[in-house]
Specification:
The structure is a single chain. A hairpin with an 8-residue loop joins strand 20 (213-215) and strand 21 (224-228). The chain has one domain (2-357): YVTN repeat-like/Quinoprotein amine dehydrogenase (Methylamine Dehydrogenase, Chain H, 7 Propeller), CATH 2.130.10.10. The protein is mainly β. It is built from no helices and 30 strands. The chain has strands spanning 2-10, 18-20, 29-32, 35-37, 45-47, 53-54, 57-58, 64-66, 75-78, 85-90, 100-106, 112-116, 125-129, 134-142, 148-161, 166-169, 178-181, 184-187, 198-200, 213-215, 224-228, 233-242, 248-260, 262-268, 277-282, 298-304, 311-318, 331-333, 342-345, 351-359.
Length: 366
């Protein structure tokens, strides 16, 4: 079993974070909400800009690095439910403060945002999960030198409201990444800019996580789905099957019903054994105190998938203030250089770093 060193970086209540080199010194830094924390020890904090606090939330539901304006500095892409606007924050370079914020599009309330290079251009496109609006993505317009121009092209690919939940999964195995929503999936055409994409209404995933993950759990060559309930109890996987008539089926399997508010999920080889693990946890007070299980203890967990057996391992667990949840947008990356991926966990319970120390020695073999 893995062992982790836990550290509280800040008691700020922002729910998203990212890791990238902010000041160009070659060392990864941690970004969360209104501040960035300078690596390698993350003790020195720098102000980015004011983040509006609304009804117990902060208007910042994702942080993602991209050089939007082509100046060589990684900027931040963000958006949130309350502001209803997709935005980017300009990195002024070095240790300078007061990042400017620019609007990209007034697109409706954003649950959170994920990123994927849908056209193979080398730069990810922006996919906000806007439950009340049709699914769209945004492509950064670049100049002849391949540098960002601060301008984006909006590409609507859905015609119905998206609903809560989104992920990137090659459902039909044709090599093109499709977009999974809570009530079905959008099939990517040969040209991703040919719209709208065909929608297949094949399942109902409830208040689905962002992301919904694709993984061949059984090893039979068909992509299955791993889904957390973001605003209820439950973590499940949906097994893809093909009927005799060629139609697609989905069989629901339980992973864990002991916790609620599994909002963000990652698939990472956390223990370096060559097998992917599922990492997730509870988003503390996701709907403030309105969700089932809102007052339960919080935690972060990883699961050995093992052909669908999903063996659970606890990284942290306990009451808020002692333990950490996973926020709406946590981050997994090796920050210490030991090869093992670490976990940065934001949330209304504070910003935590879990340093992955590797496998714990078996007491019988010490």
């Amino acid at each position: 079993m893995l062992q982790f060193k836990k550290r509280l970086l800040s008691d700020e209540k922002y729910e998203a974070c990212a890791v990238f080199d902010v000041n160009g010194d070659g060392i990864p830094d941690i970004i969360s909400g209104a501040y960035w924390y300078e690596g390698p020890d993350y003790k020195k904090r720098h102000f980015i800009c004011e983040i509006e606090a609304i009804s117990g939330y902060h208007d910042d539901f994702s942080d993602y690095p991209m050089d939007v304006d082509g100046d060589g500095n990684l900027d931040i892409l963000t958006g949130a439910w309350w502001g209803e606007t997709l935005r980017w924050r300009k990195n002024p370079g070095g240790d300078h403060q007061n990042w400017e914020t620019f609007d990209i599009d007034f697109c409706g309330s954003i649950e959170t945002i994920r990123f994927f290079d849908i056209d193979g251009c080398g730069v990810p496109e922006i996919f906000p999960n806007t439950p009340g609006a049709p699914q769209a993505f945004y492509k950064l317009i670049r100049d002849e030198q391949g540098k960002g121009t601060s301008q984006f092209r909006k590409v609507p690919i859905g015609t119905e409201t998206s609903g809560h939940g989104m992920g990137f999964v090659d459902i039909n195995g044709n090599g093109r990444m499709d977009i999974v929503l809570c009530d079905g999936w959008l099939e990517q055409p040969e040209d991703p800019f040919q719209t709208p994409w065909t929608f297949h209404r094949e399942f109902s995933l409830g208040s689905a996580s962002v992301p919904i993950l694709g993984f061949d759990v059984t090893g039979n060559g068909l992509m299955d789905l791993i889904v957390g309930q973001a605003h209820d109890y439950g973590l499940h996987w949906y097994e893809q099957g093909i009927d005799e008539d060629g139609s697609r089926t989905w069989t629901k399997h339980l992973i864990d019903d002991s916790a609620s508010q599994f909002h963000d999920l990652w698939l990472v080889d956390l223990d370096l054994d060559g097998e992917i693990e599922l990492i997730t946890g509870k988003r503390y007070r996701a709907h403030n105190d309105g969700d089932p299980g809102a007052h339960d203890p919080i935690g972060i967990y990883y699961y050995k998938i093992d052909g669908g057996r999903f063996e659970k391992h606890v990284i942290d667990f306990g009451p808020a203030g002692e333990a950490s949840g996973a926020g709406i947008y946590f981050w997994v990356q090796d920050l210490t250089g030991n090869g093992y991926p670490d976990i940065v966990a934001p949330g209304k319970d504070g910003l935590y770093l879990f340093e992955n120390l590797g496998l714990r020695k078996d007491a019988d073999n010490e």
